[in-house]
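Run log, item B.
One chain of 652 residues. Sequence copied directly from the ordering sheet:
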Amino acid sequence: MSAQKQRERQQQAYQEQLRQIQHQREQKMREKLQQLKAEYLSAYSLPLNYPAKVTRVIDDDGGGSNKSKNDSIRTSKEFINARLLEAGLPLGGGAPSKLTLGDHSVAAQRFISDLEGTGCYDSVQVHIGNDQDNNDDDDASPEQQQMFDVTVRLKEKRWYKIYIGGGVNSDDLSSLGTSGGTSTGNAFGGGAGAALGALPKLQFESSLSASNLTGFADMSTALYSVDQTGASSFRFTHDRPLCSWLPKQSTLYDWLMPQDPRLVGDKSIEEQKTNDDIDEMQVLMGDDAQYALGGGSHVTLGVHALCLEQDFESTRSSKEFTRSIGVRLANHCRGASRGPGIGGPNKPSTSSPETMAGPYFFLDWNACLRDTLPRRHSEFPFALDCSSDVAKQAGTAFKHSLTGGMYLNGSLTDDRYDPTMGYDAHLVGEVAGPPGDAGFWKLKGGGAFHFPLELLQMMTLGIESNDGTEEDETSASVMGLTLHSSVNFGIARPLTFNGLCSNLGGIPFSDRFYSGGPGQLRGFLPAGIGPRATKGGSSTPGGDSLGGDMFYTSTLAASIPFPSYFETLRQNGGRLFGFANAGTCVSVDPSVGFGSLSACSRITNSSRIAVGGGVSMGTPMGRFELTYAVPMRYGPKDARKHVQMGFGFSFG
C-alpha cells in the first residue's frame, strides 16, 4: 500500500508540474500576444480629419445639452487647431503611412503640455475617434468618412484670479552678472544678487489676473507688493499671441498661422516621387519644420508697465524710484505659469526673462523715468550721506532703450536649477539713446557646461554589466561625480548720438555692471568688487560702489551626490561641490579699446580669485546653495564674506 501511495503522489506531482508548465506557456503566449497587439496598434496609421472639434469638458453633475456647453467656450477653435498642427499632429491626413498611432500620442501629449502651460486651463483632453452621432453624416466626402475625428475637450479656468498673500522678491534671486537695478525695465535680469545680502526679501503681494479674454490664451496681470524694507512696487503685464492682434485677412496673420493642411499642395510631388520619398518629405518638411512647436501662434506681443522703488543704500548710498512702460515681442507668453519657478500654480509670473521657461527669445522696447535719491544724513537732513559721485547723478533722468536677447534657461540640461549634464547659455544686448538722457550700448552673455564623469567612462570603456570585479568597484567611485564650468561677461560703452544724449556722469549707475555674491563670484558680497568712490556714506564705509563697464566671472567646480547616509537630501537632489572662481569688474576709458594692452593688463591685474566648497539643491523657487569660500586674491576695499547662502536661477 505504501508503494501505491507513493506512485500516486509522484503522479500528482507530475501532473501539477505539467499544469505549471502549461500555465507558464499560456502566460508567455498572452504576453506575446499583448506585445504584438501593442506593436500593431503603435504602428497603425490613422488619417485625421481637419479641423479638430473643440468642446468643453462635461462635469458629471452638469445638466443641459452638450451644445449649450460648447457655446460657453471662450477659446478660439482656430487657435486650438493651430496649436495642434504646431505640436506635430497631422490633421488633414498628413503623411498617414509614416505617422503612426504612437506618433499621434506623442504629438497629442506635447499639445496638452503646451496648452496647460499657458495657465488658462484646468484640464486638456485629446480624443481620437469618430462619434457615433457623426457616422451617418451624408455631407462628408468618402475620404473624410474614412478618416478619424480629433476632439479637444477643454476645462477652462475662471477668467479672473485674485491672489492675496506672501512671496519673495524674484528680482533678488538673480545672481548672474547683472547691473544693479536692471529689473527696472531693460530686461537684463534681476538685481546684482540679493541687494541686501544673499537671501531674497520677503514681501506682501496682492494681484489680479485675467486670462483667455480674447480666446487666444492671453494673460493680463496687475501685481502690487511691499517688501520687508517698506519698498513698494506695482507691475502690470498683458501678453497675448501676436496673431490675436491682427485681422484675419492680413498677410502677416496668414504668415504666422499654419496653413490649412487640406490646401497644402503635395499632389505634384506624389506624381514625381515614390511613396517612400513622399512620406519622408512630408514628415521632414510638413510636421517638423512648418508646424514646429514654438511657431506662429506662440509668438507673443505684450505690453508692460512698472512703478518700482529700489534700495541700494547698502552698496551705493542711494535709492531709486522708477516708472516705465514698454512693449515686448517674445516667442511665448511671460505671464503664464510655465512650470516650476516664481509663478507657481496660484499666482502668475511678472518677472525677468531668466525666470521664464526656456528657451526664451525676446525684443523689448522700453521708456522709463528714474529718480535717484541719495541717502540723507541722519543728523543733518539737508546734507547728503553719500559720495560726490552718487550726488552728481541725483535727480530725474529719462531712459529710452531697445533690448533683445535669448535665454536657454536650462532647457538643454537635465535639471534647470541643479544640473549635472548639458549646457546653458544666454546673450542679451541693449542700446539706449534719444530721446533719452542716457546713451550707451551694452552686451552681456555667458554659458555653462556640465559633464558627468560617468558619461566619460561609458564613452571610453563601454557599457558593461557589473560583475563584481575590482575594475567595477573602482569605476563605481566616480559614479555621480560631475564637472561644471561657466563663464559670464559684460561690456558697456557710452554713446552721445552727436550730442543728443547728455550722459552727465557717464553711463548711469543702474546700467553699469556689478560683480560678487552667491552663484556669481563666491567669497565676495554682491557689488563687493569693482570701482569704488574714495569714500561713501555711513552705510558704505568702504566707499560707494560705482559699477564698471566691463566684467567677467568664471567658475570651475566638481560635485557629487550626498552620501547615502543623508538619504533625504540625496533623494531631493542635494549635492556637495567644490569650486574655484575668478572675476573682475573694471571701468575702462572710452577712448581706450578693450583689446588694447593697457586694458588687458588692467583686467588681468584686477582679477579676484576665491576657492571653497558647499552644498546645493534645486528647489521650486530656484537653485539654493550654501558655500564657504576663501578669497585668495582680493583688493583692500573689496567686501568679502566666507559663509554665504543664496538663491538663483542658474549655476552661475
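Observations after the first pass:
- The mean pLDDT is 78.
- The first helix runs from residue 2 to 43.
Flagged for discussion on Thursday.
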